[in-house]
Amino acid sequence: MKHESYGFDTLAIRSGQQRSSELEHSEAIFVTSSFVFENAAQAAARFAGDQPGNIYSRFTNPTTQAFERRLAAMEGGEACVATASGMAAITSLCIATLSAGDHIVSSRSIFGTTTTLFEKYLPRFGIETSFVDLTDLDAWKESIRDNTRMLFLETPSNPLSEIADIRSLADLAHENNCSLAVDNCFCTPALQRPLELGADIIVHSATKYLDGQGRIVGGAVVGPKALVDEDLFGVIRTTGPSMSPFNAWVALKGLETLNLRMNAHSQNAMQLARFLEQHPRVEKVYHPGLETHPQHNLAKIQQHGFGGVVSFVVAGGREAAWRIIDSTELLSITANLGDVKTTITHPATTTHGRVSDDVKARTGISEGLLRVAVGLESVDDIIADLARGLDG
Ligand SMILES: *Cc1c(COP(=O)(O)O)cnc(C)c1O
After folding, report:
1. Which of 184, 290, 331, 373 is the most exposed place for a label (fewest CB within 10 A)?
2. Which of 51, 31, 30, 29 is nearest to 39 (CA)?
């Protein structure tokens, strides 16, 4: 299939598949750890790298490759390598591109476990990270040192949906011989394609919207062929966090409906945000689709939709926030997101529970804050489920 000429939905449904000799219509799952050779000479050629082809599923697997090719096509990237989780993608990226003595500048508002990786584990290997406010371009500039190699961010951020100016940060990275890596988990390529805006590398947690139905844990890195097919592929086949073929198949089939789902998530989230915005007990709503959002105009240009996450502050602090959670009958009380099922979280005591009070105060993680990852149920039912605790 010629990728370049097709639209996004066609790529999502058709790209990446290579039919086997059985001529199956839907993509097959190749549940096998190893592959056989026609003869000794072929085995030798494959191991020597003189002949392309499968050897062992820690290296390559046809189902996993179908997922990789499809996600690369959708992100507009040259190559993709799938990983066992989103964290495996981020860790592998660091191992593949950084060395002792290198430095990262990262947004402060990133996934909690990524912060732990940067703060606790990478320093043991001589890699330091400076954290900055996602939206403060001057702070990014001032934090770059001679040994800075990577800028890292998520946009929109979790849970407050701040928006980074990807193009400006890509320019800044390139002026300083750095690469810009974007965790594109919240928008997915359906709503935002950072490579088109100048970013160099995309990381994904396939656990979230790519699967979209809460079934698997997985991840991926998308980027230039030389980086992904050589450096990253080498790290993953050596260190072992490969994606299993079954998980790859689930995520692959998830991609087929990604655009439909992301638009539906965005619509439901927008309606919920509008409801919350006018509710007398709600003090603040964080959603990039609202005109009151400080980067609403940037989100409109940079994204093709506003995404499925809505956070809000209820009057009455933790007690009021917990009452809303405990009054729900439909919503799932869980920290996961990117699922057809709507989830509700109290960040201050869960995802951000170990963050110091000082940082919480500075980053807006207040006791009255709730995060809703809006699913695809009937939006009136989602609103009614939250209204019960808000009105009660
Ligand atoms: C969940 C998540 C990750 C980590 O992904 P796992 O699949 O859980 O390892 C990374 N970044 C973001 C933004 C996430 O939401």
Report:
1. 290
2. 51
Q: How much is the pLDDT for 362?
A: 82
For residue range 367-380, what is the model confidence (pLDDT) as tens digits?
999 999 999 999 99
Domain for residue 213, yes or no? yes
Is residue 69 within a helix (H) or strand (E), and if so which, with residue range? helix 62-75
Please tell me if the CB atom of residue 154 comes closer than 6 angstroms to any atom of ligand 1: yes
Q: Is 208 in the pocket of ligand 1 (CB under 6 A)?
A: yes
Instruction: Flag whether the pTM goes above 0.85.
Output: yes
Token pair 């990789």 is at which residue?
A: 68
Are 293 and 334 in a shared domain?
yes
- The residue range of the domain holding 76 is 8-30+61-255
Q: How far is the CA of 45 from the centre of ligand 1 (A)?
A: 38
User: Can you read off the two tokens belonging to residue 113?
Assistant: 């476990």
Q: What is the number of structural domains in the chain?
A: 2
Q: What is the pLDDT of residues 87-144, one digit of tens each?
A: 999 999 999 999 999 999 999 999 989 999 999 999 999 999 999 999 999 999 999 9
Residue 2 lies in a domain: no
> Measuring from atom 5 of ligand 1, which residue has the nearest CA?
86
- Closest C-alpha residue for ligand 1 atom 2: 205
Share of the chain above pLDDT 70, in %: 99
Residues 226 and 294 in one domain: no
Residue 126 half-sphere exposure, CB side, CA atoms within 13 Å? 6
Reading phi first (left if > 0) and then psi (alpha if -120 to 50, else beta), residue 53 is in left
**Domain edge (last residue) among 220, 255, 290:** 255
Count Cβ atoms within 10 A of the Cβ of residue 139 and give its class: 0-12 exposed, 13-18 middle, 19 or more buried. Answer: middle
Does the beta carbon of 207 lie inside 6 Å of ligand 1? yes
**How far, in Å, is the centroid of ligand 1 from the Cα of 83?**
12
**Dihedral angle computed from the Cα positions of residues 35, 39, 45 and 47, in that order, rounded to the nearest 10 degrees:** 40
Alpha carbon of 132 to ligand 1 centroid (Å): 20
Which residue in 201, 192, 238, 237 sits closest to 220, CA to CA? Answer: 201
Cβ of 204 less than 6 Å from ligand 1: no
Look up residue 72 and give its amino acid: A
Q: CA-CA distances (angstroms) from residue 255 to 190, 244, 247, 340?
A: 9, 17, 12, 14
| Tokens 């309606």 sit on residue | 271
- The reply to whether ligand 1 has any atom less than 6 angstroms from the CB of 339 is no
The answer to whether 101 and 126 are in contact (CB under 8 A) is yes
